Amino acid sequence: MHQQLIRAIENIIPLEAAEKPFVASLFQLKHYNKQDYFLREGQVCRNVGFLNYGLIRYYAIDANGDEQTYDFGKENDFTCNYSSFLDHSPSASSIQFMEDSEVLSISYDDLQRLYAGIRQGERFGRLICEQLYVYAIKKVASLYNDSPEQRYQQFVQDFPDLQQRIPQYYVSSFVGVKPPSLSRIRKRMAGRQIY
């Protein structure tokens, strides 16, 4: 149940054999159904989740009241609204399950215990924050600098295994276009045999 989580952590820092049961003990197993929420807009994010299996999307409501999908998560990904989690502020976005999912969840207090209780715990926290920062900066830069077609190409590159699992209207929202425009982009790319 916790093997995927341990492997994901060991991709970032080494764990001693004695540390693995301690880490596993801090994460609680939870099951969610498709359309359930890990976090709703306005709630404070109290947990970080690790997806054993399943699929999630991150979205916010724009000024027109429309949902704008801005990211996805899948197996072996961590999920959280980190700004809400860190400063205990209400979330400005939602995290919704797109498939039945199994999640290992850790609370803020238990995450602090993890940082303090393993040899490279603080380093693990720093490296995760650095990865999140770089990812966020790249996403913001893409919104300002890349065309919708470039953003779709990046989606295909980042999520090659998700195209059949995500409805196209969520993909078009993620890319920043309406579904008919996404269809035209896909046709152009298919004509050039890019994917």
UniProtKB/TrEMBL annotation:
Residues annotated as domain Cyclic nucleotide-binding: 15-114
CDD domains referenced in this protein's UniProt entry, alphabetically: CAP_ED (cd00038)
Domain of life: Bacteria
Coiled coil: none
Protein name listed in UniProt: Crp/Fnr family transcriptional regulator
Record organism: Chitinophaga qingshengii
Organism lineage: Bacteria, Pseudomonadati, Bacteroidota, Chitinophagia, Chitinophagales
